[in-house]
Design goal:
Elements lengths: L7 H7 L5 H14 L6 H12 L7 E2 L3 H8 L3 H13 L3 E4 L14 E4 L19 H36 L6 H7 L5 H16 L11 H16 L6 H21 L9
Antiparallel strand pairs: 1-3, 2-3
InterPro entries: WH-like_DNA-bd_sf, WH_DNA-bd_sf
Protein name: Helix-turn-helix domain-containing protein
């Protein structure tokens, strides 16, 4: 097997899904099928892998140390969780090497495996084997069961989505989550928060959302309300600009409008 380098070409070649929607559906299926086999810390690692597998859907190239930092566990716990996920056939870990410099080992590419859906196709029977009365009765029962199973699947999917979405509350300031969650579904919530972080960081990473709640709240709500009125088309671009402008305002207030104690 040839050496794999940490390049975009490699990530694209490993990519198991053609869209984030496919990745989302696969992760929902994983959580539903393996719920009883995964520890809370393994589920937390799975969620981070999912969140950071969107650029190349299904491929995460975060280091295990970074994952540990984000989950709030040790690196050893992340290694154990990844090995557990791999043993269940949920992910595959690929050893990568740097494509520049000394070509030393890089972070693994952690790739999601496409989960096989359970086969729920009803068993076929020949016409000769069934009387008309029995056939009608059987069809009615099968239809009711299929409808029931479909409702249960939809219910489970929605519950898993809600669990993942609630878990995000621990990853961001509570008021930011409360602002965004009524307006964004799971995927857009990730993107919206990431957009705000990038907008803020483009001015000053040290300025905290938590210390400037009112200003950021007003800015975010203003964008959302404008979007709902149809004034804003590219929501995430305007959110980025709002975070950028608000952070610039805070920076100016802290650095240029502070009182000059020497003049007192």
């Amino acid at each position: 097997m040839s050496t794999m380098l940490n390049t975009e070409t490699t990530y694209i070649s490993l990519q198991p899904f053609s869209s984030v929607d496919e990745l989302n559906a696969n992760t929902i299926a994983i959580r539903a099928q393996y719920r009883d086999q995964l520890t809370p810390s393994t589920i937390a690692v799975l969620d981070v892998l999912h969140r950071y597998s969107c650029k190349y859907p299904g491929v995460c190239y975060l280091s295990k140390s970074k994952i540990a930092e984000m989950v709030g566990v040790t690196r050893r716990t992340v290694v154990r969780a990844c090995n557990a996920l791999e043993s269940l056939g949920i992910i595959v870990q690929h050893e990568l090497f740097r494509h520049k410099g000394d070509k030393r080992q890089s972070s693994n590419a952690i790739v999601f495996v496409v989960v096989e859906k359970e086969n729920v196709t009803p068993e076929c029977h020949s016409k000769e084997a069934l009387s008309d009365t029995h056939l009608n009765s059987s069809n009615t029962l099968d239809t009711r069961k299929a409808d029931f199973d479909k409702k249960e699947v939809v219910k489970n999917v929605e519950e898993v989505k809600a669990d993942i979405k609630r878990g995000l509350r621990d990853k961001m300031p509570a008021y930011i989550y409360d602002l965004l969650s009524p307006y964004f579904d799971l995927d857009d919530l990730y993107q919206a928060y990431g957009t705000l972080l990038r907008g803020k960081a483009s001015i000053d990473k040290s300025i905290m959302f938590e210390s400037n709640e009112r200003l950021y709240s007003d800015a975010v709500l203003s964008v959302i309300h404008a979007y709902k009125r149809g004034v804003v088309r590219n929501l995430f671009a305007v959110l980025f600009t709002a975070a950028q402008d608000t952070t610039a305002q805070i920076y100016r207030n802290e650095n240029y409008n502070a009182p000059n104690w020497l003049e007192w």
